[in-house]
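Good morning,

Attaching, inline, the backbone tokens for the sequence recovery test we're adding to the shared suite. The designed sequence is right after.
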């Protein structure tokens, strides 16, 4: 399926103080087939401490020399917004103008067809109100023989390379409204935790109490309330490279790295817009295994400290 020329979604990239990550993210984007036809908006947050100032400057020097996109617009924050405010306000600003958007952070490597995939599906599902998000990330792949060589829908979101439309993003402004329903309904909490494969409920409550800062859990909560769907590709088109202690929310999460394949894809999209039950069950198993591995990692770390 071809996307009409000059109708590609703008790319919005959020950067802060990681010049090496940012350079890799930008270079991978430039390698995308549709890069030269896409407008790039870069939101550069200001340093929140003197320790971050040098790296923020290095990032800003880097992004000022980016060429290869249809246009490059840089928005330099004069004060530190922090991740939640930076993303929520940045996305809202651009999506209100362009009605659709592709969002990346500075620690994501993309496949050459990432932009193609996002633009094709943004067009394909634009008028289907049950689809709230498109993501380029996938937990599983076609070698598992579960997804049968086509994309799949899940009732769970992803913040690793995603896209949406203005009339879907507007629900984000509802914030944490209604989370008390999870306290009163065990079945609802179980479903929100994706059959208890991951404690999203705790993340939501930590947001309420100020213990956590995650715009992503707010996005997921509001889509969950709408019984909304996210479209995933059959093979991941995004790798996360931020699990080196440099990211705000990526220090205690386990995921396989370097999963992007070099092959070219002929994308196949589902005609039935509903959650893929086989994929759901597979994701639940994967998330539970990651949770177990994380527990074992923490236990091992504690034992090493106690032996000292």
């Amino acid at each position: 399926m071809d996307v009409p020329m000059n109708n590609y979604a703008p790319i919005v990239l959020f950067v802060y103080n990681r010049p090496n990550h940012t350079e890799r993210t930008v270079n991978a984007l430039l390698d995308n087939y549709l890069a030269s036809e896409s407008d790039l908006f870069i939101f550069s947050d200001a340093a929140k401490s003197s320790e971050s100032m040098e790296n923020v400057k290095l990032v800003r020097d880097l992004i000022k020399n980016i060429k290869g996109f249809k246009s490059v617009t840089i928005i330099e924050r004069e004060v530190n917004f922090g991740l939640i405010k930076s993303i929520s306000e940045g996305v809202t600003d651009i999506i209100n103008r362009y009605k659709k958007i592709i969002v990346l952070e500075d620690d994501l490597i993309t496949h050459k067809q990432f932009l193609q995939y996002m633009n094709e599906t943004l067009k394909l599902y634009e008028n289907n109100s049950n689809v709230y998000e498109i993501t380029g990330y996938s937990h599983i792949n076609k070698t598992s023989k579960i997804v049968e060589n086509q994309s799949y829908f899940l009732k769970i979101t992803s913040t690793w390379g995603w896209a949406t439309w203005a009339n879907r993003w507007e629900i984000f402004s509802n914030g944490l409204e209604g989370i008390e329903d999870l306290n009163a309904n065990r079945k609802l909490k179980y479903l929100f935790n994706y059959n208890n494969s991951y404690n999203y409920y705790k993340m939501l409550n930590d947001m309420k109490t100020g213990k956590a800062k995650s715009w992503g859990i707010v996005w997921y909560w509001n889509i969950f309330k709408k019984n909304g769907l996210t479209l995933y590709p059959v093979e991941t088109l995004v790798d996360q490279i931020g699990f080196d202690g440099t990211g705000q929310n990526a220090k205690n999460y386990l995921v396989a790295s370097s999963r992007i394949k070099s092959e070219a894809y002929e994308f196949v999209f589902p005609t039935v817009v509903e959650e893929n039950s086989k994929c759901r069950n597979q994701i639940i198993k994967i998330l539970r295994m990651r949770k177990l591995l994380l527990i074992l990692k923490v236990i091992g770390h504690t034992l090493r400290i106690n032996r000292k």
